[in-house]
Amino acid sequence: MTRPRWAAATAATLALTLTGCGAHVSSSSEKNDGSAAVTIDNCGQKVTYDKRPERVVTNDVGITEIMFALGLEDRMAGFVMPDDKGELSGVPWRDGYEKVTWLSKKEITKEVALDARADLVFAGWNYGFGEDNGVTPDALRELGIASYVLTESCRNGRGNARGIVPPLEALYTDLTNLGKLFGVEDRAARLIADFRKQVADVRAKAPRGADRPTVFLYDSGQDKPYTSGRFAAPHDIITMAGGDHIMRDLGDSWTAVGWESVVERDPDVIVINDYGDTSAEQKKKFLLSYPPLAGVSAIKHRRIFVLDYVDLVESPRNPAAIAALAAYLRTVKR
């Protein structure tokens, strides 16, 4: 997910006419035994990869950690990621960061992919892909580089709006697809089973009905808050943790809203997305001092919870984030 300063893509280009790395749109499917082609459904398009990628370049932290969680470090040429995504040395997949080259701390470019001799770029719309920077699946195809689009970021046909499946299903879809593409289906299945169980255990303890606290996700922005609709990871993180996501009616992933809608919906809790040039403490200070929010329940009772960026974008850390938020929400009395 990109902040407002990283301009949103401006045209709906869902068709993945991929030919790089032997990838192309196809209506047939073949079993991948290590050399045969494999066809997967990516953003509603059947895409066939004629060989298993060997030099993958990923963009952003959640996408990179999906590859690490699947044990695919040896299939990676490197990753692109700003250095504002928190401390990485203590994360579950820290070995991956030690093994794989950090190619750039800026946005991905065609030059970065070419210099890395990438045969596949794993990114997403507004997570590296965008017409504004010239990095799209079609543009990469012309360079002989295949693409895989993060499912959370799939455009849904309503302008630039993103999201076609519930957020956790997007994670499970990508794990399944990449497991098939790289021949690690068993590992992908185990991850998904473990994640589903972890989430189910949390939901069993979560508040229900009228006891569910209402929650607003604050990413950034002062004139207008940047937040999550129902197709970004925070929606499932909030709801499965036992909260009521106040922006669930937004048919998008990440988007801006007006402060008046936040005030009107009066959240019991505000979750801060911790990343970027503005620290979580600075964001909290702004929220607590912003006059229009003074009457909001979360501000009056100082109920503000912080999660890291990688917890709140599609990533293998989503289930742990659900557990962490759930523990906090169980302390909130309405």
UniProtKB/TrEMBL annotation:
PROSITE patterns in the cross-refs: FE_B12_PBP, PROKAR_LIPOPROTEIN
Family statement drawn from the similarity comment of this UniProt entry: Belongs to the bacterial solute-binding protein 8 family.
Pfam families hit by this protein: Peripla_BP_2
InterPro entries: ABC_Transporter_SBP, ABC_transptr_periplasmic_BD
Protein name per the record: ABC transporter substrate-binding protein
Domain called Fe/B12 periplasmic-binding: residue spans: 55-334
